[in-house]
Amino acid sequence: MRRFYFRTIVGVLGPPMIMCYLVVIWQKYLVPIDPDSPVSFGPAGAKWIFYSWFVAGIIGLNLSLYGLAGAEAGMLMDPFWRVNNAMVLMLHADNTWSGPGGWGKAIKWVVRMRGTGHKQTRHPGRLWFILALPSMVVFVAWPLSGLCLEMTSGFVRGSPGSTPSVSGFVYSDFNGSPGGRSPSKEPQPDARVPGFGAVYTPQGFDRSKKNFLQQVPVVLPMDEGVEEIFLTAQGKTPIEGKAWGLLLHYECSIVDKLSDMRLLNQRRSSMDVWGSKDVRKEPQGKNNGLWDFKPEKWSLNIDAVIETAYETLLMPNTLPRENPCTYEDVLNENSPTGYCYYNTDSIAAQDNSKMDQKRIFEVLLWQGLIGPLSAIGVSCTSKSSVGTADINGVHSTFSNFIRTDTPIPTRRGECARSLGAETLACTLKLQENGWLRWFFDSVGAPLPIDSVQTNNPGFIELGFRENVQLAYLQASQLRQSLLKAFSSYAITLMYNDGRDFIAPDGSRLVKTNPNMTAFTAGTVITGNVMPAIIPIALFGFWAVNSSALCLVYGFRRRWSAMLDGHTVFRLGVELKDGYKAKFMKHSSLAEIEECSALHEIPGFVGDVQPKHRLGRIGLVEGEAADKDKYYE
Fold first, then answer.
1. pTM here?
2. How far is CA 506 from CA 55, 178, 411, 455, 509, in A?
3. Distance between CA 495 and CA 232 in Å, rounded?
4. How do residues 435-445 score in pLDDT, each as one tens digit?
5. pLDDT of residue 271
6. Residue 292, H or E segment
7. How far is CA 229 from the centre of its chain?
8. How far is the CA of 147 from the CAs of 37, 43, 107, 142, 179, in angstroms?
9. SS (H, E, C) 382-426
């Protein structure tokens, strides 16, 4: 008897190799997927990997059957796996355990056997089931693997050195736009990040908590605050590397009780509001203002008073107080400033690092349509800083942020005003008329309607009409308007609202960044409806069982490479004369299940001449064949 090394080695190594290939695909293409990312990323070559897996699956299935067929021949000679009779052996001769066609044939065989009444042969036997199990598992696992892989359009990491074109301010031109940038009441449709529109959050931050991060381009929200994000110049596709940009935070919350205010809790009663004059107090680090709505009365049936207070960045006592919204010092264009991201004098000017400290802005809005005034209140916190950070284009995260000052502009008027508590004060511009109307406009609240307040026909003919406000501004709307002021200015500050400019040095909004690498559009592999761990577990079970059977029984000496038609014919020739006579007597053209002689012929492959020095392989009822003996 011989050993069949090639078939056995193929059966032992083939299934684990296919299994390992699937694990590699899983680890390289599926595990790195960020479920919170609104776009898909992946390594290059996804299309070839996707199709090659199904080719490999077909090859792996056939390699497994190739190896198991050899193990089957060895197991038929093992007493533990011996089959009861030739009827069961015929199931193995047809390899019915290897696929759906054979499984159906085996089921039909079992049904017919039960109908014939043969008690000895009622099921295919333990050997058939142990061979069919890995075949059934891989038959299920292979199509399931297609449900865990899907090709889609996404982005592939670009080659190093591919310098992307980005749109937005960078370190060199942040204070280079003519006229600078400062908050204003100019209407903005939305705070949309231009270009690809990515917003970067700290590593470990759960992006699924914020709805506005679930799509690109990102639109900064007006109904929720921003915990901490990093804005940098945007490319047309995702980018990664070391970037310079704006780190910011802002949040606003509705205040229901005056005692919860930190800055406006010391105030007069509502009865004294109308009798007060404009007040500007300067407690340490705070500005406090009370502003009357009467000068701009846009609706005859509404009165309003607004109170604001915010924490400022203090200048040294030797310097005059600086207006956070305007540039009043025309004689000294480069005098110290506390509201830009640079420091002209480390002694005279405030330290830029204080900008990344949260500061408070509070507002109380008193409104009355008819009768006494009632108030709504909102408290906001904000901070910002500029610097460099390492950004991850796949996960939209940043790390290693280092604060930096921006270059000092040639003229102080070119300074870009920082984002902070002053942003809201400069947006409202309470010294000017129109702040109440801005609250309504910014959130799309109903404006006054044109109404006739009399039934006198004469007045109607003369066109006596007036504006009538139908509803108060609600606390939630006040909060939204302040959040929108923050988000709109963040886009202005970092992207100039998408409008191009020419700086004194000739730079423009769009430029190249050699420190960044751009992703390219391409085909990537993503997960599908089926978790990958399910087919991986099934393939693992198949690989272990199939390889184990080949390893244990494939290397043993046996009479044939596999149980094929030739070996079955040989076994039939070697039958004893008594078995041949029974077979000839009961043989007919009927189905094989009706051949009763097969039930009486043994199915164990052994030595028909155990006492002779030279043995012969055939179907026997005796002991196993001696593997060290010579056979003819």
1. 0.75
2. 56, 11, 16, 65, 10
3. 9
4. 888 888 888 88
5. 40
6. strand 286-292
7. 17
8. 21, 20, 29, 9, 57
9. EEEEEEEEEEECCCCEEEEEEECCCCCCCCHHHCEECCCHHHHHH
